[in-house]
Design a protein that fits this description.
With about 240 residues, this protein is an alpha/beta fold. The protein folds into 2 domains: about 5-95 and about 210-235, 3-Layer(aba) Sandwich (Rossmann fold); about 100-200. It is about 45% helix and about 15% strand. The chain has helices at about 15-30, 50-60, 75-85, 100-110, 130-145, 165-170, 190-195, 210-235, and strands at about 5-10, 35-40, 65-70, 120-125, 150-155, 175-180, 200. The strands form 2 sheets. Strands 5-4-6-7 form a 4-stranded parallel β-sheet, sandwiched between helices. It has a 3-stranded parallel β-sheet with strand order 2-1-3, sandwiched between helices. Strand 1 (about 5-10), helix 1 and strand 2 form a beta-alpha-beta unit. Helix 4 (about 100-110) packs across helix 5. It comes from Microbacterium trichothecenolyticum (Aureobacterium trichothecenolyticum).
Length: about 240
C-alpha cells in the first residue's frame, strides 16, 4: 500500500520563497523511501491547502502522515493542522533539532561572523508559549554546535524581545551583531530580519539537503507512533 508524507509549509506570497519550498520538496521526493509519496501542502496564503491535500490522499490510502515544514511549535501546528488532519498523525515541527542548529551555524559562519560577535537567533514569533521554548532550545543547540559568542533569541512578531531591540542591546554592550535568520525560506519574515539593522544577516535555512534528514526522521517517528497506537487499540478490542 502506498504511504503518503504530506509536507505542509506555511505559504508565502513571495515567489522566491515558493521556489525554495518547491526545491525542498524535490529533495524530499529524491530521498523518499520506496513506496512513499511526498505531497505538497500549505496551511495559509495559497494552495494546495492542507485540508484539500488530506482529503485527496484519504481516497488512496490510510497510511498518511503530515509533517509540518515549520520550524517551531505554534498556532498552525497546534490548531490548524490538527483540524485539517482529522485524526491523522502529525509530526512535530522541524525544530528544535541539532541538524538545524548545524545549518544555522554554517549560515552564520558564511556571513564572516567572528568568535566574539553576538548572534541574534531571529525567529518569526508566535502567540503560543511553546514556540518561545523551542527557539530558546535552538539557541542552546547553536552554542553546542560551535557558536563561541553569546546567542540570544528575538522575534519578528508576537513574542518579545523584538529583533531590532535585541540587536540594539548587543550593540550597546559593544558587540557586533549577527542576525541568524531562523526562517525556512525568503519571505515576509526574512525581510523583517534584514531590516533589523544587524551588522551581518545570514541567509534563511533554505532547501539544504540536511533539512530532508529531519523531515524523514519526523515522518518515521510519527508513523511508528501511529502504528503502535493502532496496535494497542486492536489488542483492547
Amino acid at each position: 500500500m502506498t504511504a503518503v508524507l504530506i509536507a505542509c509549509a506555511h505559504g508565502t506570497r513571495f515567489e522566491e520563497g515558493r521556489v525554495v519550498v518547491r526545491a525542498l520538496l524535490d529533495v524530499l521526493r529524491a530521498t523518499a523511501p520506496e513506496g512513499v509519496e511526498v505531497h505538497e501542502a500549505y496551511v495559509d496564503v495559497h494552495g494546495p491547502y492542507v485540508t484539500d491535500v488530506v482529503a485527496a490522499a484519504r481516497e488512496r490510502t490510510d497510511d498518511i502522515v503530515i509533517v509540518p515544514l515549520l520550524l517551531s511549535t505554534g498556532y498552525h501546528t497546534e490548531v490548524d493542522l490538527v483540524e485539517a488532519a482529522g485524526g491523522l498523525p502529525i509530526a512535530p515541527a522541524l525544530g528544535p533539532h541539532p541538524v538545524l542548529a548545524e545549518i544555522l551555524v554554517d549560515r552564520v559562519r558564511a556571513t564572516g561572523a567572528g568568535a566574539d560577535d553576538t548572534v541574534v537567533l531571529a525567529a518569526a514569533g508566535s502567540t503560543r508559549a511553546g514556540a518561545v521554548v523551542d527557539v530558546e532550545r535552538m539557541a542552546a543547540l547553536m552554542t553546542e554546535a560551535g557558536i563561541a559568542g553569546p546567542v540570544v533569541t528575538a522575534y519578528a512578531a508576537a513574542s518579545e524581545p523584538r529583533i531590532p531591540d535585541a540587536v540594539h542591546a548587543a550593540r550597546s554592550a559593544g558587540r557586533r551583531t549577527v542576525a541568524a535568520s531562523y526562517v525556512l525560506a525568503p519571505g515576509h519574515f526574512s525581510r523583517v530580519i534584514e531590516k533589523a539593522d544587524a551588522d551581518l544577516t545570514s541567509a534563511p535555512i533554505g532547501a539544504d539537503p540536511r533539512v530532508a534528514e529531519v523531515v524523514w526522521e519526523r515522518w518515521r517517528s510519527a508513523r511508528a507512533n501511529a502504528c503502535a497506537v493502532a496496535g494497542n487499540a486492536a489488542l483492547r478490542l
